[in-house]
Amino acid sequence: MSVEIILKGIAWDHPRGYEPLRATSKAFSQLHPKVKIEWDIRSLKEFGDMPIEDLIDAYDLITIDHPYMGQAYADQLLLPLQDRLTKNFLKELERQSVGPSFRAYYFDDQLLALPIDVAALVAASRNDLISRLKLKLPQTRQDLFDFYKKVPKNYSVAWPLCPTDLWCTFLTLCAQDTNGDFIKDREVDEKVGANVMDEIKHHLEFLHPSSITWNPIQVLDSMGATDEIVYAPFLFGYTNYSRKGYSKNLVHFSNSPVNPDHSISTILGGVGLAISSKCQHADLAVEYTSYVAKAEIQEGMYTQNGGQPGNLAAWEHEGNNEMCNNFFSNTLKTMQNAYVRPQHQGWNRFQEQGADLLHNGLLKNTASAQIVKELNQLYQSLD
């Protein structure tokens, strides 16, 4: 039977991003022989920064980050899903949410995407080296400074601190220090922000020199290929590196260091699957989106094809934890206490420009109070 309907999708450029979507699309087409789903890919930076309005004309299915929900709602860029899926199905997905991930794709009572991939900043370690060097993984941010002193000189600790990831680290530490309450009326608490920037500068004194330009994939690629980096305290986790055979060395993942005075862990990441408001085959697109999000697909086909699932059933699945060396069980506490970024209209522009502002300030060693003051001036200008 010939294909009569083609749905176009846009994923992001990592096997975790596109392989499970290709696999689920193939399975979906076997159920719907007249339908074919084709996927293009974009870079990780484009995934975080590219405006949705640049994609809705060309693509039916869009992988998206939850801070875009306010902009998408205001400009009616995405198809609302709450009335196209049964209440029982939505209740089940919410019950199976990994931390706050399901609610993160709502804006003003409109559900604009389904969580198919969930992440937060977690810690990565070479446990073989940690054991050989008789090191103990830090549990708090203060423990980190003691940990640095015990790492032998021919080994390193790394953080991904390119602009995008510096931004995520900055928000994480601010959230940890205030239990998530540090932004009011489009203004970052200047004292909290300045203290966090001072702390990041202090950490930089002990980190691998490439940290300031690396993203998580570059850190994990280095950990997977060489013995230089033993630990990374804050990066978006990738189950791929915890699976045997993906890289030369196995990387283990655990909960990131915290501020023990508060319950917030780290910033929520992950991927939602959304549908363009201009999609000509909305019913089929909704059917595919719900197919990918449901528990049996998430815990089976999606994870088995390199995905990092967005459904709690997949995270608690014994076989998945065995396959990924307990990635899921060892980081679930972080996920359950994750900080959700603001989602109001304009946040995505502030996020992109604010990340560059923080990074430039760090490179120039600008006074932390001045950096945060300029950050708030930017925030207000985008109101």
UniProtKB/TrEMBL annotation:
<dbReference type="Pfam" id="PF01547">
    <property type="entry name" value="SBP_bac_1"/>
</dbReference>
<protein>
    <submittedName>
        <fullName>Extracellular solute-binding protein</fullName>
    </submittedName>
</protein>
<dbReference type="InterPro" id="IPR006059">
    <property type="entry name" value="SBP"/>
</dbReference>
